[in-house]
Design a protein that fits this description.
This protein is α/β, with parallel strands linked by helices and 284 residues long. The protein is built from eight helices and nine strands. It has a nine-stranded mixed sheet with strand order 2-1-3-9-8-4-5-7-6, sandwiched between helices. Helix 3 (74-93) crosses helix 4 (123-135). Bound molecules: zinc ion (ZN) (2 copies). Residues 146-148, 218, 220, 227, 261 line the site of one zinc ion.
Length: 284
Amino acid sequence: MPTGIFFYYQQGERLRDFPQALGGILDKDTVLFYDAFYPSKPKSSFDLEPIPKDTLHTIHSPEMVERVEATGDYEGAVYSAAGTVAAAMRIWSGEITNAFVFTGYGDHHAGSNFFGGGCYFNGAALAIHELRGKFGLRRFAIIDTDAHHGDGTWELFENNPNVLYMCFCSGQFQEKNNNVNIRVPFRVNDSRYLALAKDAFERWCKTFQPEIIFWNWGYDGSAGEYGDIGLTPELHFQMARDIKHMAQEMCTGRLVVILCGGSRRKLASFLIPRIIEILTDQSE
Ligand SMILES: [Zn+2]
Ligand SMILES: [Zn+2]
C-alpha cells in the first residue's frame, strides 16, 4: 500500500523548495499526494478539509482556540493539524500504510490550554481522539525526537495510560502512566542517540504494543540548527528505518511522521525527501 504525503503550503523559508524538492517521489505509484492549498496540484491530489471547531474543542479549550485565532495563524494551524488527522484516518481505512505530514505549525508544545514555540494545535492528540471515537482504537504511541521537551503532548497524556508518549530531550528522566521522558545528553553523537532509542523502544514500545505510531520528527537537534545537540543527517535516516521496522513488527506498518522543529531550508530539502523515500521503499 502507498505512502501518503500530506502537504501544507507554508509561507516562509523552511519549506520554500517544496514540493519541487520531492522530485520524482511524487511520480511513484507508491505515493499519494494530498494537499491543503497549494495552487498547482499534482494529479493524484485530494483536498484536505479543515478541522471543525467542535473537534478542536475535544483537545483544546475554547478559550485557547480563540487565542490561536487572534494570532492570525489560525488557518495554517488548522491545516497543519488537519494533515495529521487525515493521515491517521486514511491509514486506518487502509488507503495508505504510512504518511509524512508537512506542518507549518505543530504539534508538541500545544496542550489543553496553552501553546507556544510555533505549535498551535496538537495534531497527534486530535488524531488519537478521532481514531478512538470513530474506530475504537485503544493503544497509541507517540515518539518525539524533536530536540525540545514536548510539554503540550506530555500534559495531554500524563493521565492516560493508553497513550505511550516517549519524549527524547535534555530534561530529566521521568515516567508517569506511559509518558516517558528519555534524557538525551546535551552533547550526543549518532551512535549514542541510536543506542538510547533502541533501549527505549525495547523497554516501552515493544511491551506496550501500539496499534498505530506517531513520530514527532524534528531536525532541530542537527548540527548547526537552533537546538543543536550534534546529530548528523544519518541519525535521522537510521531512526526512520528503525521506527518503520518497529511499526511493521507491531502494527502492520501504521506510522504517521509529523514534521516538527528545524529551520534550515537546505537541511529540509536534503532530509525530508530521503525520509519519505525510506517510508515508501518496500524493501526497507
Ligand atoms: Zn524543537
Ligand atoms: Zn521531553
